[in-house]
Automatic annotation (TrEMBL):
Transmembrane segments: none annotated. Keywords: ATP-binding, Nucleotide-binding, Transport. One of its GO terms (molecular function) is ATP hydrolysis activity. It comes from Levilactobacillus spicheri DSM 15429. PANTHER family: ABC TRANSPORTER ATP-BINDING PROTEIN ALBC-RELATED. CDD domains: ABC_DR_subfamily_A (cd03230). This is ABC-type multidrug transport system, ATPase component. Residues 6-231 form the ABC transporter domain. The keyword Metal-binding does not apply.
Amino acid sequence: MTQPVLEIHHLQKHFGRFQALKDITFTVNSGEVFGFIGPNGAGKSTTIRTLLGLIRATGGHATIFGQDVWRDNVAIHQRLAYVPGDVYLWPNLTGGETIDLLLKLNGTAHTAHTDELIKRFGLDPTKKARTYSKGNRQKVALIAAFSQDADFYIFDEPTSGLDPLNERLFQEAVLHLKQQGKAVLLSSHILSEVERMCDRIAIIREGTIIETGSLAEMRHLTRTEITVTTEQPLAAADLPGVHSFQPGRHPHEYQFAVEAQQLASVMATLTAHGIVALQSTPPTLEDLFMHYYGAGKE
């Protein structure tokens, strides 16, 4: 079996008495886009800074390409591309000069692919970096990253400041990396972006990974929304285990939410009442996220 590109086992990080990371464990494989989600302060960026060798873990262990992220960080960075969520550039260099410098620092040359990326992202490479908006600074870092032939790409809130068109271009570029067999770790607060792109997801809460898996594997944690029209009238008492049962706008139309384990019995009851129309909406990543972070969740 192929070794994962990234392996993290019970990673911990203390800042004095504050424990930023308590228990981080997950892997990222080649040809996989792995989503890393959680609110601000949950520990996402601290985890990534540890993986980049910028800070040293207090406990646990993490390797990239089988190499220790702290001891072997120089060798690891030769095969890695990284884009942070807030890019700072040399103010007196133009965007083009900055891209070339970033590529040169990583042993990569400016190519026709770089020019294509500059055109696609709509960046004016002749302007000084100090004149760039946040979105344009992000574009510079993304163009430099996508110009590299790295084996592992780490994106920490990379589309912050980008407009919807450039967000889509980013998503297309990441999916192209996946097709090439590259490994991608994507930390994002845009849940629709993660849901659209990622093969597996890890949810972090207060420095601990609380759930890992594909969205399909996690759907059992949340409820499916059902809108149904039946031949015979329904009452909430007919459907034990459903939530938020209420009549719809039309005769014999009803709306409710149902847990995954109750779906079979609910469908049997609906069939017995004669289904005229049925619409089901499976739980989304946002539903799953709110399962852990919504009001009342401890």
